[in-house]
Amino acid sequence: MVLFTVPQARAELARLRPALDRLVAVRADAAELAAALSPGGPPTALGAMPELKAAEALLDELVTVIRDTGAHLKGLAPLLLDFPAELHGDEVLLCWLEGDDELAWYHRADLGFAGRRPLPS
User: SS3 sequence, 15-61?
Assistant: First the structure.
């Protein structure tokens, strides 16, 4: 397992931002396409089954890009990433949630998101 320092995790998050932004957009398109393709679903200008399959394939690619960094993708909607790290001698997960401006939170692995705390300055 890769352990990140806080600066390394922040740099990796910055590098991932274009992929994360793309994932959010494709996730929305896939949701709209899936709704349109359901029985009685509202029409969409985004396309039909081929476009949904393409969106799903792109989502898989983007998830792979994220996981290949060593970050843990904990949620897709909203996006939730954890970066394994060591902080003050304890193994923790540096936590980024879609909408966060920066990587500014951590939690112990055994506590999960409910144990989220701000990173010390």
Answer: HHHHHHHHHHHHHHHHHHHHHHHCCCCCCCCCCCHHHHHHHHHHHHH
